[in-house]
Write a structure and sequence with these properties.
Blueprint: H1 2-6, E1 10-16, E2 23-32, E3 37-46, E4 54-55, E5 59-61, E6 65-68, E7 74-83, E8 86-95, E9 98-104, E10 112-113, E11 121-123, E12 129-135, E13 163-170, E14 176-181, E15 187-194, E16 201-208, E17 226-233, E18 242-243, E19 245-249, E20 255-263, E21 266-273, E22 283-288, E23 299-302, E24 327-328, E25 339-346, E26 349-356, E27 361-363, E28 371-377, E29 382-389, E30 392-401, E31 407-413, H2 419-425, E32 428-434, E33 442-448, E34 457-459, H3 475-482, E35 486-491, H4 500-504, H5 513-527, E36 538-543, H6 545-556, E37 563-567, H7 582-587, E38 603-605, E39 610-612, H8 633-641, E40 655-660, H9 668-681, E41 688-693, H10 703-718
Parallel strand pairs: 14-18, 34-35, 34-36, 36-37, 37-40, 40-41
Antiparallel strand pairs: 1-2, 2-3, 3-4, 3-5, 6-7, 7-8, 8-9, 10-12, 11-12, 12-13, 13-14, 15-16, 16-17, 17-19, 19-38, 20-21, 21-22, 22-23, 24-25, 25-26, 26-27, 28-29, 29-30, 30-31, 32-33, 33-35, 38-39
Length: 723
């Protein structure tokens, strides 16, 4: 069943094609196991006021990125084409079904950046220009450029050079020109958007290099030294080939900020605390924009929530970005936006949150067990989302939002499922169970009615540790349940969605409180009769920090689990030599790892020289920059004692390790050394096995790798289970 489930298209984005067109374009990602590739699809849905929506056939697309303008009249496409041993890059502008121009930008830059961290693709408000980011070209004047070390943004972005922004402008005859924005080397800018006024101003989010010239890995890390910057282009008579600029930081240094959006006369963005836990409670900030934007103070529209409020709202735990078009206008007396729509983790689910631009929030009814993703709004009163459960894959729903923020939902699309898949899914049942005396811990238990009274149970702690398992559909989870297992996914202390105090409650307690929460959740479902102790009855699996917990559990409770499977686990906390996130190993275990970020008000020129220091830092201090810590013997000892390697002598359970050899987050050597340590101690050498995946990084998410990891863990458990 895994392959059939994994090939169900996953919604990745949407856009209303202008409200008057009454249609939505959806984008999907789908796995093709036959060709061992991931494909991108688009599908158009035409809405109707008097009947069901019309769903047009999905089409495969081969561009890097595409975006409709707000009016829906223009569409820009970023495309790459293999040519011989190289690649060529093109920018296309379409108006309706007419290709207005194709611009060859191969000599300007390398690969386009369309990721959620530094990618940009945005129209100006007059729809006569657009901005995108791409890989900077190597310095042709440097004879050693090919070999010179340049820091990159880590896991998932390995080897990518510094991002550079380009503006494509076209005149009334659609004759294009392209300009490169020259920005300081110490800033890695992305997420560019145009200001409404003045015309030569943009806003962007920028990561900052540290004093040791390290760029801390960004994927899954919302605590990075990152701010919102105002980018003022030098005034020119025409669009130059290279545009000089002045950059002004608009946000405070203690905040990590992302996803800037223009909403009427305001700039809004998401922020979290810089440093410390890699994920914490998001806040929504707003700043009035105009000629004196940089001197104004931001307003907090939605603040940190320490503990869930009386209505159950735990604070905002937003994705990496707002939807491309997040605004709603719910005031019948005005045409101005009133709310922003975004999804957020709420306990063990994700739900739709409407953030008022006057401050405050509204949480939509989440329905029976669903987890929701907000894809887009029409800028007025409609919102399109995907929703799913372990038994219901990815429905597309459109909501009509009333003035009081209540929402009426209509399902407009469902995946096409074969009869056997639909029948199998109908047996799946899910419940969220709170764990007594271990607040806020709760666990998602997924079962099949066809599995009998006491099937073997697999405990599956999530990674992060500041990640959350939700009730969203997951191909591997549902497939393993249908193989005869019950799955229990504990959301332990530190999981987002339970208040900021819960996240910070794990800091300095890794290997203790999270382990105790996981075993406490298992004890509870055993007490409830859902799981059963004994040979062949309890298993554990996890990846990254989930692998850390799995290794801890089989070491600290060696007689409890029949077998374990781990993907790229953290085994030795003292091994930080190759990781892109060395701060994680310090901060999560209660050690200091300071990060540096420019103060608000800092002004830089294109060449990186300071034009002005903020009032709070009139000039660099004589004490010099803040130095990242070195791994001392005391730190190493603490980190090793808090790690699973310190319990290796107690392990009895058979262990399967799944290791990505290109992992930038957790050194593959950690899992490999654990394999050798276990082999040396095992009386039955066949009880320890390891699969390694060349070319695969931390998530092991390649089409073939994900399938093999699932099948290997399934077979490892089934060979030892008592059904």
């Amino acid at each position: 069943m895994y392959t059939k489930f994994a090939e169900i298209p996953v919604p990745t984005g949407a856009q209303f094609l202008a409200p008057e067109f009454n249609s939505i374009q959806l984008s999907f990602s789908v796995r093709d196991h036959e060709r061992n590739v991931k494909k991108s699809l688009v599908k158009q849905i035409v809405l109707s006021n008097s009947g069901p929506a019309t769903v047009l056939p999905a089409q495969e697309v081969n561009y890097v990125a595409a975006r409709y303008s707000l009016s829906g009249r223009n569409r820009v496409v970023l495309r790459e084409a293999k040519e011989g041993s190289g690649t060529k890059y093109f920018v296309e502008l379409w108006r309706g079904d007419s290709l207005r121009f194709t611009l060859d930008v191969t000599e300007k830059h390398g690969a386009f950046y369309a990721d959620e961290f530094i990618g940009s693709l945005s129209f100006s408000h007059d729809e006569m220009s657009m901005v995108y980011t791409a890989e900077a070209r190597a310095d042709k004047m440097d004879p050693y450029a090919k070999f010179r070390f340049k820091a990159d943004l880590g896991e998932g972005l390995s080897g990518k050079r510094r991002p550079t922004a380009f503006i494509v402008h076209w005149d009334k005859d659609d004759v294009p020109s392209v300009s490169r924005i020259e920005t300081p080397e110490q800033l890695y800018l992305g997420q560019y958007i145009f200001s409404r006024d003045p015309e030569n101003r943009l806003f962007a989010a920028a990561y900052e290099r540290q004093s040791d010239w390290r760029l801390l890995g960004v994927k899954g890390c919302f605590n990075r030294p990152r701010g919102i910057w105002q980018v003022d282009l030098a005034k020119e008579a025409a669009y130059p080939e290279v545009w000089k600029c002045t950059l002004t930081k608009l946000t405070d240094s203690h905040l990590s900020c992302r996803s800037p959006q223009i909403v009427d006369d305001k700039l809004v963005w998401l922020s979290e605390a810089a440093g410390g836990p890699h994920v914490s409670t998001s806040t929504v900030q707003s700043l009035s924009i105009g000629p004196e934007t940089s001197s104004r103070e931001a307003t907090t529209l939605l603040d940190v929530v320490e503990h869930p409020r009386e209505d159950g709202f735990p604070g905002l735990y937003a994705p990496a970005n707002f939807p491309t078009y997040p605004t709603l206008c719910l005031d019948p007396r005005s045409s101005s936006p009133t709310h922003l729509a975004v999804h957020s983790t709420i306990g063990s689910r994700t739900g739709v949150v409407l953030v008022s631009l006057k401050g405050g929030y509204s949480v939509a009814d989440m329905g029976d067990g669903y987890s929701w993703n907000v894809l887009a709004t029409d800028g007025e009163s409609r919102i399109v989302c995907s929703r799913s459960t372990p038994a219901i894959p990815y429905e597309i729903v459109v909501g009509e939002v009333a003035n009081d923020t209540s929402i009426t939902w209509t399902v407009v699309d469902r995946p096409t499922l074969s009869q056997d898949v639909a029948a199998a899914l109908s047996s799946i049942k899910t419940q969220i169970i709170k764990v007594p005396d271990r607040e806020p811990t709760e666990t998602i238990v997924i079962q099949s009615s066809s599995n009998g009274e006491h099937p073997p149970t697999v405990l599956v702690p999530h990674g992060g540790p500041h990640g959350t398992t939700t009730t969203a559909f997951n191909a591997a989870t549902t497939a393993l349940v249908l193989e005869g297992f019950t799955l229990s996914h504990p959301n332990y202390t530190g999981s987002p969605g339970f208040g900021d105090a819960a996240i910070r409650g794990l800091v300095g307690q890794c290997g203790r409180r999270d382990v105790d929460d996981c075993i406490g959740s298992l004890d509870h479902i055993v007490k409830l009769g859902i799981a059963q102790d004994g040979p062949g009855k309890l298993f554990v699996m996890g990846g990254s920090h989930g692998g850390f917990l799995a290794a801890h559990l089989i070491g600290q409770f060696p007689d409890r689990f029949t077998a374990a499977s781990m993907r790229n686990p953290v085994i030795s906390g003292g091994d930080t030599s190759t990781t892109d996130i060395p701060d994680w190993y310090y901060s999560e275990f209660g050690l200091s790892y300071p990060v540096e970020s420019s103060p608000k008000g800092t002004m830089l020129s294109s060449d990186g020289s300071h034009i002005q220091y903020s009032a709070s830092s009139a000039a660099p201090t004589s004490s010099g920059p803040v130095l990242p810590p070195l791994m001392t013997s005391e730190h190493f000892k603490k980190l090793q004692l808090d790690s699973p390697i310190s319990y290796v002598d107690h392990v009895k359970a058979p262990v399967l390790l799944l290791i990505g050899l290109d992992d930038r987050r957790v050194s593959p050597a950690q899992g490999i050394e654990y394999y050798h340590a276990l082999k040396a101690r095992a009386s039955d050498k066949s009880s320890v096995d390891m699969l390694v995946f060349k070319g695969e990084s931390h998530p092991l998410e390649g089409v073939e790798a994900a399938r093999v990891c699932y099948e290997a863990a399934r077979d490892w458990f089934k060979a030892k289970a008592q059904f």
